[in-house]
């Protein structure tokens, strides 16, 4: 039997049910997501895109509570590399999500940098590499965000490296961590996105363990990824091709990732996210059940 991963709190998210947007006819209704994530055996969930789940705190607390669920985090997208001019609009969005996250008793806010390439059209929105000035805006902006979110809402921000954003590869992630204050900013390590961009999750955990504040568990299909890289396919169409796959069929292997996280000696959320937008309504639940069973076999 594997060693018990008693510091790892496993959950899932709307993303694993094909949910990317607050409202989209291709997505399952939020009631079905909540019913099925509980049926699959998960206790923790993320809020997903703001507005997908009810935004009235009392109603949301009732809906998750009656299903035996609890909220681990909210999620926001930001473009802080663009400098002080975007702070006001960024904060308007962040404060909305942070208030609901706080009301649900969660302690984390997952922060994802904005995309440099359009998910659907492949249009290049910005250069994929930041200038030195933009890097300074990004790091200082994230530190300011971490400070404000902590002061006003009591939440810790965890920044999520993501494909087709400026925070993606090992070099970019290490530069970001080396340029930010650990008291204000830490990392949400998404194992799938990091592998998608060529990174080694176990190495990152072992090298920057004190900066790992949260985990997303995800795998990529290496064969499809090779095609995606070769053809320069944007992230959205890559997901539609099935680049993110059901564990344990892809990479990275999750057992050593979880073991490395356990060795950090701190409590960590490990939230399953299998990007599947769009997907058939009946597809997510069986995958979620099998994935939960697999994670139990790992000790989680």
What topology does this entry show?
Layout: E1 8-12, H1 30-39, E2 44-46, H2 57-65, E3 70-78, H3 87-103, E4 108-113, H4 132-153, E5 156-159, H5 170-178, E6 186-190, H6 191-196, H7 201-207, E7 212-217, E8 219-220, H8 222-231, H9 235-240, E9 244-245, H10 254-262, E10 268-272, H11 284-297
Parallel strand pairs: 1-2, 1-10, 2-3, 3-4, 4-5, 5-6, 6-7, 7-10
Antiparallel strand pairs: 8-9
Report on the structure:
- InterPro entries: IolE/XylAMocC-like, Xyl_isomerase-like_sf, Xyl_isomerase-like_TIM-brl.
- Keywords: Isomerase.
- This is Sugar phosphate isomerase/epimerase family protein.
- GO terms for molecular function: isomerase activity.
- Residues 34-296 form the Xylose isomerase-like TIM barrel domain.
- The protein has 300 residues and is an alpha/beta fold.
- It has one domain (8-297): Divalent-metal-dependent TIM barrel enzymes (TIM Barrel), CATH 3.20.20.
- It has eleven helices and ten strands.
- It has helices at 30-39, 57-65, 87-103, 132-153, 170-178, 191-196, 201-207, 222-231, 235-240, 254-262, 284-297, and strands spanning 8-12, 44-46, 70-78, 108-113, 156-159, 186-190, 212-217, 219-220, 244-245, 268-272.
- Strands 1-2-3-4-5-6-7-10 form an eight-stranded parallel beta barrel, surrounded by four helices. Strands 8-9 form a two-stranded antiparallel ribbon.
- Helix 5 links the parallel strand 5 and strand 6.
- The longest helix is centred in the middle third of the chain and has 22 residues, at 132-153.
- The protein is globular and about 50 Å long.
- The relative contact order is 0.17.
- The mean pLDDT is 97.
């Amino acid at each position: 039997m594997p060693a018990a991963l008693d510091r790892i709190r496993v959950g899932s998210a709307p993303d694993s049910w094909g949910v990317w947007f607050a409202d989209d006819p291709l997505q399952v209704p939020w009631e079905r997501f909540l019913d099925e994530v509980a049926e699959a055996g998960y206790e923790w969930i993320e809020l997903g895109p703001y507005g997908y789940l009810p935004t009235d705190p009392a109603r949301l607390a009732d809906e998750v509570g009656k299903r035996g669920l609890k909220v681990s985090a909210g999620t926001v997208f930001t473009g802080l590399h663009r400098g002080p001019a975007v702070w006001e609009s960024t904060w308007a969005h962040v404060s909305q999500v942070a208030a609901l996250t706080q009301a649900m008793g969660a302690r984390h806010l997952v922060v994802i940098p904005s995309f440099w390439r359009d998910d659907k059209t492949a249009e290049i929105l910005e250069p994929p590499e930041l200038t030195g000035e933009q890097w300074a805006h990004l790091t200082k902006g994230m530190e300011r965000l971490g400070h404000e979110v902590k002061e006003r809402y009591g939440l810790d921000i965890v920044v999520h490296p993501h494909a087709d954003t400026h925070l993606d590869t090992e070099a970019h992630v290490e530069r970001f961590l080396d340029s930010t204050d650990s008291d204000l900013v830490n990392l949400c390590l998404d194992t799938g996105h990091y592998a998608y961009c060529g990174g080694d999750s176990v190495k990152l955990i072992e090298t920057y363990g004190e900066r790992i504040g949260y985990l997303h568990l995800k795998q990529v299909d290496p064969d499809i990824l090779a095609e995606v890289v070769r053809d320069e396919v944007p992230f959205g169409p890559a997901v539609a091709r099935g680049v993110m796959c059901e564990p344990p069929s892809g990479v990275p292997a999750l057992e050593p990732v979880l073991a490395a996280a356990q060795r950090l000696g701190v409590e960590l959320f490990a939230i399953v996210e299998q990007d599947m937008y769009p997907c058939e309504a009946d597809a997510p639940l069986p995958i979620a059940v099998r994935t939960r069973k697999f994670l139990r076999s790992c000790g989680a």
